[in-house]
Specification:
By secondary structure, the chain is of the alpha+beta class. 19% of the residues lie in helices and 40% in strands. It contains two helices and six strands, in the order βαββαβββ.
Length: 108
């Protein structure tokens, strides 16, 4: 058995969880936040049999696409009256996946 740990953008999580459920997987959603842009992320945990890991990975690939977004580079604590920098384009979305071995799995 494996545990797939996926860190995804919060904009992608509803479709992802819907597709995971349609494929008869069970998952747990944890709200988290990213370190670089402090944007909302969600960590999704999926326990899966070894032979179905690739199926779960394909679901993540299909639901968590990378895309461009404009963000302000001015720190929020400066307030009004300060010159603001031009927004920059960044890439958001996608998923960071970890697949780890599960030594023991129990439902109590």
């Amino acid at each position: 058995m494996k545990l797939v740990i996926g860190i995804v953008n919060s904009d992608d999580v509803n479709e992802l969880l819907s597709e995971i459920t349609k494929a008869s997987f069970q998952s747990t959603k944890l709200s988290t936040s990213g370190g670089f842009l402090k944007m909302g992320n969600v960590t999704v945990l999926v326990g899966v049999e070894d032979e179905r890991v690739d199926e779960v990975i394909e679901i993540f690939k299909g639901c968590c696409s990378r895309r461009k977004q404009m963000v302000s580079t001015t720190p929020p604590f400066l307030g009004e009256g300060f010159i603001t920098a031009a927004p920059v384009e960044i890439t958001i979305g996608g998923a960071t996946l970890f697949v780890v071995d599960v030594e023991k799995f129990m439902k109590i």
